[in-house]
Amino acid sequence: MTFCKTKNFQHNLNLDNNIINPLSASISEPFQLCMICNRDITDEYFLRSDDKFWHTGCLKCKECDQPVTNKCFKTDHDFYCEKDYYEKLGKRCHKCKSIIHTDDYVVIAFEIELNSRSQLGDVLYHQNCFTCKVCNEMIGTGKNYHFSVKLGLLCEKDFSSKKKNSKESTKRGRRTSLTDNQLSTLVNFYTNAQKPTRDQLGQLAISTGLSSRVVQVWFQNKRSKEKRNQSITSSANI
């Protein structure tokens, strides 16, 4: 059985490289040309990214088309205000689906498969949302947990319980429900022949729509049940 262990919750989304903050112009610096209007920047504040410059009123958000006057977020080719950047491109918590901001503490969940750990992209949880799907208890730092797309996020106790129940279910096997017509066909045949041949099993499988294995097991169980009943009857008569 394999688990992941939680580490210290961390600020996950480091967007420093995506943020352009307004800078104060230096009097000693020569005027720069705005990349939008191609005019000298003489304002007290301006925007700069690498070696590119903008008036604070010229650089606009791609979504709302409003000037970015405070914090500006950039992608490879586009610029966004803080609100639209998070709405359109921001990461969301896997549980509550709300946006994860740069100052939120988060944990990244991993899928356990074949005794190895493979990261599922950015499967993120808020610190308070990192709870077991079954018992809803928070999985704290240093605690073992299991995460998979199929089962979701489980604490060590509930994952062990599910795994145990799954093994027991597999041992018992899956029961096949018979229709009235299928059962009637098998019972009528059993009255005349309690041990059908392989060819007869195949014919019964075709006529009932069941697999040959299911038909064979039904006859085995039927014979065993009658044998037990006969044994009980004999014991009662002694």
From TrEMBL:
It is found in: Nucleus. GO terms for cellular component: nucleus. Residues 32-91 form the LIM zinc-binding domain. Gene3D superfamilies: Cysteine Rich Protein, Homeodomain-like. Residues 169-229 form the Homeobox domain. One of its GO terms (molecular function) is DNA-binding transcription factor activity, RNA polymerase II-specific. Residues 171-230 bind DNA. One of its GO terms (biological process) is neuron differentiation. Keywords: DNA-binding, Homeobox, LIM domain, Metal-binding, Nucleus, Repeat, Zinc. InterPro entries: HD, Homeobox_CS, Homeodomain-like_sf, LIM_Homeobox_TF, Znf_LIM. Pfam families: Homeodomain (PF00046), LIM (PF00412). CDD domains: homeodomain (cd00086). This is LIM domain only protein 1. It comes from Intoshia linei. The lineage of its organism: Eukaryota, Metazoa, Spiralia, Lophotrochozoa, Mesozoa.
